[in-house]
Design brief:
Elements: E1 5-9, E2 14-18, E3 21-26, E4 30-34, E5 40-44, E6 53-62, E7 66-75, E8 78-86, E9 100-103, E10 109-113
Antiparallel strand pairs: 1-4, 2-3, 2-10, 4-5, 5-9, 6-7, 7-8, 8-9
């Protein structure tokens, strides 16, 4: 079975918020669509307040994208474990997501177009 992954730059201004604070904001978001999954918004790292994120020990492997590393997001209400992930060395077919972060939809974390 072949997996179809599509990556496109999406228009608009996108934010990620945690505990009411803006953690990231960009006009350069990417949307990754993958068969069988909801689309995911990726933020360029330079548009995310990386001071609020710490790498964790968690990692996963996707046969289509590569190895993902995870980050805990620190907020005024406490840490949100493994709230974000990144592919530091993605496979060639998805190289556009290198240097980007995605965030899990969570009751404490929202990703939205503003």
């Amino acid at each position: 079975m072949t997996k179809t992954i599509r990556i496109r730059k999406i228009p608009g201004r996108w934010t990620v918020r945690a505990a009411g604070a803006v953690i990231g904001e960009t006009k350069s978001a990417l949307e990754l669509s993958e068969d069988g999954h909801a689309p995911v918004i990726y933020f360029p790292r330079e548009n995310v307040a990386m001071a609020f994120l710490d790498a964790t020990e968690k990692s996963t492997h996707c046969p289509y994208k590569g190895d993902a590393t995870y980050f805990t997001l620190h907020t005024k209400n406490g840490p949100i474990e493994n709230a974000a992930w990144s592919y530091d060395d993605p496979f060639e077919g998805v190289s556009e997501i290198k240097g980007h972060l995605a965030f899990y939809g969570h009751e404490k974390v929202t990703v939205e177009e503003v």
